[in-house]
Amino acid sequence: MYKLIDGKAHSARLRGEIKLRAEKFTEKSGRKIGLAVVLVGDNPASQVYVRNKIKACEETGIKSFANFLPESATQAQVEELVKSLVNDANVDGILVQLPLPAHLDEKAIMSLIPVEKDVDGFSEQNMGRLCLNEKCLVACTPNGVMQMLRAEGIEIRGKNAVVIGRSNIVGKPMAMLLLNADATVTVCHSKTANLKEICRSADILVAAIGRAKFVTADMVKDGAVVVDVGINRNSEGKLCGDVDFEDVKCRCSYITPVPGGVGPMTITMLLYNTVCAAERSL
Ligand code: GUN
């Protein structure tokens, strides 16, 4: 019988801890922890994410600084805004919601965020430190996965971990975190040969592909831990993951559902990173 990994429960527990740490920070510093969120344009998915991030801040005693710029914003305008947030002593973390409109130079904008305020963990410095297994701010989604695996008491050391997907936001940092935790890690992607065989060798299988129900039972080893990072919509508009949950679940020792698995942890880890960034500034 498989065990469902309840992302909402893990998230609620962590948010309780975050709230206490935020209160302690305010007692010590005389100000609230601050997270600045920058949204350029009107991508509907981004608007939902940003709204949820702002709401989560309020619930945990973190002050949010919402910055909305129109789709027509120029490179100079966005850069000026980010620079002002970098210099704002009340802002501990800066998050520029991606993707940015196509006319903007994303790399130039992201590179303005200093390592200590990079609560997304996307900067070259934070990614480099992760690679070197040094203390850093870690990308929220893969960090959330690690938190859940650890809290569930799932052994990682010496296990075969397979990550499907090599994005900079999820796949790569996920692989690094698993490697740093002493797993033997394989990263698969669209050009991988023998994908099914590799996946079947996984004690821990992380799907971060972006294709609905991509992982089926024939790709899963008996007793595997299956983590589904996917957020897709099927033809009826219903949310579904990268894993065919109904097909796969009976093979697993543990599995994350969609929704209610990895998703709730992503925002929680953003709050967590913001608290860490603030505490380090004291
Ligand atoms: N767009 C999709 N996911 C993310 C994320 O985790 N951070 C930011 N900044 N943008 C995103």
Layout of secondary structure:
Layout lengths: L2 E2 L2 H23 L4 E7 L3 H16 L3 E7 L5 H12 L6 E4 L9 H5 L13 H8 L8 H12 L8 E5 L6 H10 L3 E5 L6 H6 L3 E4 L16 E5 L3 E2 L5 E2 L4 H4 L3 E4 L7 H19 L1
Parallel strand pairs: 1-11, 2-3, 2-4, 5-6, 5-7, 7-8, 8-11
Antiparallel strand pairs: 9-10
The protein binds guanine (GUN).
Structure description:
This protein has 282 residues and is α/β, with parallel strands linked by helices. The protein contains ten helices and eleven strands. The protein has helices spanning 7-29, 44-59, 75-86, 106-110, 124-131, 140-151, 171-180, 195-200, 245-248, 263-281, and strands spanning 3-4, 34-40, 63-69, 93-96, 160-164, 184-188, 204-207, 224-228, 232-233, 239-240, 252-255. The chain has a six-stranded parallel β-sheet. It has a three-stranded parallel β-sheet with strand order 3-2-4, with helices on both faces. Strands 9-10 form a two-stranded antiparallel ribbon. α1 (7-29) packs parallel to α10 (263-281). The longest helix has 23 residues, at 7-29. The N and C termini lie far apart (47 Å). The chain binds guanine (GUN). Guanine (GUN) binds next to β4.
Describe the structure using short key phrases.
binds guanine, six-stranded parallel β-sheet, alpha/beta, 282 residues
Ligand roster: guanine
Q: What percent strand?
A: 15-25%
Look at the structure and give the mean pLDDT: 98
Number of helices: 10
Strand order of the largest sheet: 1-11-8-7-5-6
The profile of the biggest β sheet is:
6 strands, parallel
